[in-house]
Amino acid sequence: MADMHIVRTYPRSIDVVWKALTDPALVPLWTSTGQGGRPEGFTPVVGCTFRFVGRPFPGWDGIVRCEVTAVEAPSLLQYTWRNKPEDRPTLVSYLLESVTDGDTRLTWDHTGFRGVEGFVMSKLLGRVRAKMLSEGLPAVLADLDEHGRLMPASTLRPRD
Asked: Which regions of the chain does DSSP assign to beta strands (E)?
């Protein structure tokens, strides 16, 4: 099966985790552990079309084309994902749940991969996503205050 499913629990409130996942200034700090794509034109509103812009390499222009398909702040965000304009979209989902002691459980899914190319892409992306959710996102969350803003002592800097 090519679909990806990752579950992580973070010692932060659901509102702070939501902010880290949806604030365009914070997203590049944790995607691919801080080296990943930055969202251009993203707002967590159904129908918003946006792009993740990363470093291109042979066979890929560095752009992921996306459209927000569902939002229920602060618990659900879904968007389509296309590496190339002609690709059939896959679906990325973030489901947040408050759990005991103020912790938040994130269930992250990327589904809809098809064929051999989809299988290869899911394996490649799966390793990157596991690292960003196990290393990148926790580092950003550790540097956010209770309102989801970077603390003054943080060494992380939002990117344009």
From this structure: 4-10, 38-40, 49-53, 63-72, 76-82, 90-98, 104-111
* Residue 150 resides in a domain: no
Q: The CATH number of the domain where 81 resides is what? A: 3.30.530.20
Range of the domain at 47: 4-142
Place of tokens 């084309």: 65
Per residue in 134-144, pLDDT (tens digit) is: 999 999 999 99
Determine whether 26 is exposed, middle or buried from the number of CB atoms within 10 Å of its CB (0-12, 13-18, 19+). buried
Inter-residue contact 53 to 38 (CB < 8 Å): yes
Q: Look at the chain and report how many structural domains it folds into.
A: 1
